[in-house]
UniProtKB/TrEMBL annotation:
This is BTB/POZ protein. Coiled coil: none annotated. It comes from Glomus cerebriforme. Pfam families: BACK (PF07707), BTB (PF00651), TLD (PF07534). Gene3D superfamilies: 1.25.40.420, Potassium Channel Kv1.1, Chain A (3.30.710.10). It comes from the Eukaryota. Residues 23-96 form the BTB domain. Residues 296-440 form the TLDc domain.
Length: 442
């Protein structure tokens, strides 16, 4: 039997990193005033990283007194210190690191070809730093699509964008979107907004990108044939992803028809026949953009868990019985009693999701709903629950309580308005986001 005794090895290598006097590599990282030199061993660097295996034998490194001098100005000292510890010990503690430095570590691990580290950091950011990702969404989106292997974060960003797409699609920044991101977005079936919004966004993006157009030539009444041809060529690969049959006839007339010249002839003929004769297209039909769940707080797999709890299924099974219709979003609709009442009144059974600053998620199901302003009705079918994060399936639980109380955008939870979970007794946990869904049988 082989004995795997890694702990002592890790400790010994950590000592070598800190106190060795036989190093043969000096790595200079950072730039301007934020610089630092690190000492390392070429044999360990080469063994642990394909990047260093190649780089340390390349012509562009310098040698001085039999010492290899290596410069990495694009990596900060804080990030490189984490990388060296990982190289020597296989250990990495991200708990006290800022989200910005963890994201920089992701970029550096991609450049230095640390595949294991790269995958782990993606998971960590998605599980533990969702708030930071969402607050810095456009920067994160553009960055991760430049990293070829960053599939997990790319998918997460697209899912988040699809959940509440309209503010971004209608913003000026949408016209600056990289075409690879736009292509990945338009292919999806879960963009939760009107298709005409997607079309309008695509046209504005195309005008900004097409040669000879842009802000100085955006008035189509002044365009010539060359301008239309430039826009057509720019949007050629995107047009087939537009669900034209989900655009109303009025919007088709006002917003699609004026751009007839940029739509391939065979596609336009089928669209026109659909609107005039109600004949379904034969070659270009795509399914409507639909999704079971539109949420910035939880992922779709947790909606299945909630559906099972509603049906009292034990053990948990695949359950796509219910559709979750988003009717209230705090960041969109405001933390306002009147807006809340108008959105939620008489909407039937509810699921409420609340994300607090720790990334923990609290929720509740009410089988009756919100009937009268300022009053929720209780039911024996109602329950409250929690998830540790937006993908948690290991520590999820139904809580011992039946009451949510929110005041000054903070959360309390318990059996009634006079009895709260001790964790929330002083109401010191601010709420980051609230979503409310009406629950409908499919």
């Amino acid at each position: 039997m082989a004995l795997l005794l890694y702990s002592g090895l890790s400790i010994d290598l950590s000592v070598i990193l800190k106190d060795a006097d036989d190093f043969n590599v000096i790595i200079q990282v950072g730039e301007n005033e934020n610089t630092k030199e690190f000492r390392a061993h070429s044999v360990i660097l080469r063994a642990r990283s394909p990047y260093f295996k190649s780089a340390l034998s390349a012509d562009w490194i310098s040698n001085k007194n039999d010492m290899i001098i290596f410069n990495k100005p694009n990596i900060t000292p804080t990030v490189f210190e984490m990388i060296l510890k990982y190289i020597y010990t296989g250990e990495l503690d991200l708990r006290n690191q800022s989200a910005e430095d963890i994201f920089r570590l992701l970029i550096a691990s991609d450049e230095l070809l640390f595949e294991e580290l790269f995958e782990c950091i993606q998971d960590y950011l998605i599980e533990k730093q969702t708030s930071w990702i969402q607050k810095n969404f456009e920067f994160v989106l553009r960055t991760v699509f430049k990293l070829t292997g960053c599939k997990k974060l790319q998918d997460y960003c697209l899912e988040f964008l699809c959940a509440v797409p309209k503010p971004f699609i209608t913003s000026k920044n949408f016209t600056l979107l990289d075409e690879n991101i736009l292509y990945s977005l338009l292919k999806r079936d879960d963009i939760m907004t009107e298709e005409v919004v997607v079309w309008d966004g695509l046209i504005k993006w195309g005008i900004e990108q097409a040669p000879g157009l842009g802000s100085e030539n955006c008035d189509k009444t002044k365009w010539n044939n060359e301008n239309y041809e430039a826009l057509k060529k720019t949007l050629d690969k995107f047009i087939p992803f537009i669900r034209f049959t989900n655009i109303t006839s009025d919007d088709f007339f006002d917003k699609v028809r004026p751009y007839k010249a940029i739509i391939p002839h065979d596609i336009y003929e089928e669209i026109e026949e659909f609107y005039y004769k109600k004949t379904l297209p034969k070659t270009i039909i795509l399914p409507p953009r639909t999704a079971t769940l539109v949420s910035t707080i939880i992922r779709p797999n947790l909606a299945t868990i909630i559906s099972n709890w509603i049906d009292k299924n034990v053990p948990i099974t695949i359950n796509n019985k219910y559709k979750f219709n988003l009717i209230y979003l705090m960041s969109r609709d405001g933390y306002d009693e009147v807006a809340f009442s108008n959105k939620c009144k008489e909407q039937g059974p509810y699921v409420v999701l609340i994300r607090v600053q720790s990334e923990k998620i609290y929720g509740g199901y009410n089988a009756i709903g919100y009937k009268i302003r300022n009053r929720w009705f209780s039911s024996t079918e109602s329950f409250i629950f929690s998830f540790e994060n937006n993908q948690d399936i290991n520590h999820m639980k139904i809580l011992d309580g039946d009451f949510f109380f929110i005041i000054d955008q903070c959360l309390r939870i318990g059996y009634n308005s006079l009895h709260y979970d001790n964790v929330f007794d002083k109401c010191q946990i601010p709420i980051e986001e609230i979503e409310i869904f009406s629950i409908v049988n499919k």
